């Protein structure tokens, strides 16, 4: 983070975290409160380590981190974590996916992670997940440039992963048709009206607005082409999580916080992730493709995703997908192997 980025953040949240001086003592400055919090998020150091570095008591640091993280989310969500609300805004997102990842009518890539924490007090098995640890769920939609368009944070880890999305405000809006998505239209060179969609992996159900790969191995060649093209678009959200875990090291160990406090911290990290994407160097650790479109792994993969602390969403099983959802996937598949939709390198990667 540059000095100017820090000053911009300070101007944004300073009034919310500033404390008044009293006759007894002067308060810790807003800048030091912000710096302590950023140090905690970026390094993953314990409160006790920060106590020695900043000479601030542990109990005070714990309050500072929560207050600053809450202020970052409340002050930043309107500007840095704003879900598109108009059709033209969604079309801009779709154009980015078309231009960058050759996937038309794509409005975002969806995925989720279980954020592991130590067993909360007096919560029984409420946060006990399928991997045998305790967690809250972070579910997010990313655009073509790794920016989060929507985040759902704090659902208890015991809820089945498909249910996390099903119970989210986004799922409700999609089912009700209130998200102002662009109207269905034909793909380039095609005649059938095709809806705009989100792309996801096997953890989610196939819907007319949600595309997932064909399951199992040994698929026909055309199905493998679809899976390859979808994976290029879906990789952005995987990289978004990887970048975030690389830059904010607190995500690389279990949180020693209560669920509400963990939710506050993760929410602030999502805001900072989007804020720092304006920097030309923040996302340098992401995957990229060479001139032959072979994937070159980003440096975040050298350390790997901290699977012990950011668990993947469990694959969904037993879904009976609707015929309309399957027909949308078939239309996209046919487009990807048509003259208008194919890319010359796709066949060597299937």
TrEMBL record:
Cellular localisation: Nucleus
Cofactor(s), names only, from the UniProt record: a divalent metal cation
Family, as annotated: Belongs to the HARBI1 family.
GO MF assignments: hydrolase activity; metal ion binding; nuclease activity
Upper taxonomic lineage: Eukaryota, Metazoa, Ecdysozoa, Arthropoda, Chelicerata
Protein name: DDE Tnp4 domain-containing protein
Keywords of this entry: Hydrolase, Metal-binding, Nuclease, Nucleus
Organism this protein belongs to: Oedothorax gibbosus
Gene Ontology cellular component list: nucleus
Main localization category: nucleus
Domain spans labelled DDE Tnp4: 110-274
